[in-house]
Each structure stands twice: as structure tokens, then as C-alpha cells.
Amino acid sequence: MRYKLSYSPEFRAEIIESVGSTRLILGSNSLRRAEILKMLGLEFEKVVPEIDENIDNGELPPDYAQKLAVRKSLAVQAEREGVIIGADTIVVLGDRIINKPEDPDEAREMLEQLSGRVHSVITAMALRETGSEKAVYGYSESRVKFRQLSSEKIQEYVGSGEPFGKAGAYAIQGGGGMLVESYEGDLDTIIGFPAVLFKDLIKKLKSEV
Question: Which positions are catalytic?
């Protein structure tokens, strides 16, 4: 099964109204996040932050993800005024944070661990105005149940190359959707850009100016 993301015209209109004339700067190299912003009808500039994502994860997963999102927003250098968006997505199995696989062996290991089990996907987001180090931030969480995966299915998926650059080594909106039995929560949280959270944060940021 392939999971397709969509938004109602009413929701898109609400998002566009919330943003108004604010210039958006996406601090991410993620094609998925850029695609969602385009789906929402928003114009934006993309700036890739240079940041070491290997921080101490001896804290609760939501705090870990939010800390990375804030760091990403702070790492973006923008010349013109606007709002910078930093985001980070992690997969959590039990009490273990699963990030992006470094190589095929690690991707296989991640998928073997997720097979037949329920895990959480947390996407944190941080927004700040250029010229300010104060950020508003929050997170959204969804739950995903994987099918029972055979070694052959895992090997086939790893061989497709899709797991790389993805938290948990899969993309639900792509071929990785075939690995998923069901999910609870918002699909865009799993993909990496929770639109409801973004709407809430942009409103909060503007109210604090």
C-alpha cells in the first residue's frame, strides 16, 4: 500500500492566511519537507544548515528531537528578513531512538528491529525570525505498525536505496509504505513536516513579536 498525503482547500487557505506575507526559509535538505510546503501553497527559500546531528541523546525522545530542530534553525544564515524553519524527525522503538542508517547493514538491522512491531515517529519543528535567537518549537507524534517482514523483502527494499537519509530506514510515502500495516496520527508527521504544528507555531511566533 502507498500512502498519499493530501490537504483540504480550507486547510490550505488557513495555512496561507496564517503565514500572510512572511517570507519562509526552510532550513533543511529534505525533499519531503519542501514538497509538503509546496502542497500547502506556500512559497519559500531553501537553505541547508551545516550542523552535527550527533548530539547526546540521553534524554526523552521529544526533547532530543526538539533540541535538534532548534539547533537546525539557529544554524541557518539568512541575509533577508523572514522566518526560519528547522525540523527533525526520529523513530522511537521502545526507549531507543533510531535515526538514519549509515550503510546497508545498518538499514537492514533497523528494518529487522521494526518488523512486526509498533514504533513512534516524532517530528519536531522550531521557528525563529532572522536576526533573533529566540525560537518557538514543538513536536508531533504518530504511531506506525510494521508488517512482519521477510529477509527477502528487507533486502529488496534496502537494495532500492530508499532507506538512506530516512529516519528508521523507510519512507512511508514511497516504497516503504508496503512495509507498513497501519498508522495512527498524522501522516505528514511520519513524512517529516506536520502542517498543523507548523500552523500553530507560526501563529505563536507572530503573537510574540
Answer: 88
